[in-house]
UniProtKB/TrEMBL annotation:
Subcellular location: Cell envelope
Gene Ontology CC annotation, any one: cell envelope
UniProt entry tagged with the keyword Metal-binding: yes
TM annotation in the entry: 68-89
Residue stretches making up the Csd3-like second N-terminal domain: 216-336
Pfam families: Csd3_N2, LysM_OapA, Peptidase_M23
Name the UniProt record assigns to this protein: Murein DD-endopeptidase MepM and murein hydrolase activator NlpD, contain LysM domain
InterPro entries according to UniProt: Cell_wall_metabolism_enzyme (IPR050570), Csd3_N2 (IPR045834), Dup_hybrid_motif (IPR011055), LysM_Opacity-associatedA (IPR007340), M23ase_b-sheet_dom (IPR016047)
Predominant location category: other
Amino acid sequence: MVRLVCYFVAGGGPNMGEGKRGKRLMRKRAICRKAQRRHSHFYQRCAHWSFSPPHGEAEPIRWHRERWMLAGTALLITILSGFLIPAWATAMRPVPVAPAHTLLPLALPKLPPPTVDRSSFEAWHVVHVQPGQTLSDIFQDQGLSLADLHQVVQATDDPTPLRMIRPGDEFDFLVGPGGVLKGFRFDKDETTRTVVRFADAKPVVTTQQRELVQREHVAHGVIRDSLFGAASKAGMSDAMVVKLADVFKYDIDFIKDIRSGDSFTVIYNDVYRDGRYLHEGDIVAAEFVNQGKRYTAYRFKQADGNVGWFSEDGRPLRKSLMRTPVAFTRISSRFTMARKHPILGYTRAHKGVDYAAPKGTPIHAAGDGTIVYRGWERGYGNFVLIKHNATYSTAYGHMSRFASGEHVGTHVRQGEVIGYVGMTGLATGPHLHYEVRIDGHQVNPLTVTMPKPQPLPATQLAKFESTVVKPQLARLKMLDKRYQFARADTAAAPASND
């Protein structure tokens, strides 16, 4: 800082005596004295502002308030310069010019006119068939006449779905002003819907494809009271329980063999259409532990298009011969070498098993084979004999009637209906007399070792193991571990005092 002090020169050198210079000096001194007198209060307050002390003083520099103010001002000016100069430089920079582009016309193909699905916004009325309803009842409930029904039947190429309706079937009606039928649609099958429109004089019939979606589910249960009870707790429907029993029916007797503590794990799917549940699907993979023995089943489509269930080693679960080819209520007589005949009154061998069942119950072929006898046989009544291979054959007696379309020489497949339960011949009640014969000799169907079915061919077996067994077996094992941990956690939890 500069000390504002006027220094007066007492005398001058040899040159100071000159007239003009002396006058200027005298004038300056006079101005200085006048300023000091007029602003004496300012000079008294700022007389100490100076960076250099007066002559003869050696006092160190001390930062007073005025010095801090000047230093702060200088610092603020420096900082503002650091911001303003780059901004000014950026503002002076020339604006970049975008490169020029050339637009070339391109001929595009014309799009087809959009198709409008009128059914998406038309007021179709959906009706589901109730038990006991007929199609004519449904038409009358919609305010339509039998003439309208006749018109619909005549317009369709295949009216079979209209003649054989079942509870749950869906029919849609489009009725215009005055109760005039404008449209009718129904399901030809699960994936095809037939639409009949009466907008013009001649009906217009079209078909629509409907996509099916399969949703997979997993169920696990431990049997305490019954299989159906455990399956219901696991979220399975009764229809799926029947399918589970049907898969393992060759290895497990679900009437006699089920025990408390048996468990099952099932991977299955349900079928949905248009976001709504349609019906239960199929079992994909299953595991059943019965009396400590583990059974597995995997669904696989073979090269010939047939779908079946196979064990882990690729053998069909379906045995070569069925032990029980009829849905029976009880075993009325077992295989024995000494039984008193209920009609003849004397003891003789009973070389078969009698399955009591209501009259008319279907009887199935125990295995693939050829019918070698079909007719009346003494004591057996209506009798059928099927030869399965060079060693095994099966016999069926006391039928009420035979299945139509079959005769000697007809090839039948396992499970195919060959007749119906009756009491022809020497019988006291309706039942099926069933025999298994090895080289022509009767053996006990309940204890005989049935021939093992042949495994899949090598090429199909490799595909079965890689695409079905490995991924599904891994899932079943993972689910078993999860449920084991859950059971362990439940067992370890402290008992409630409530």
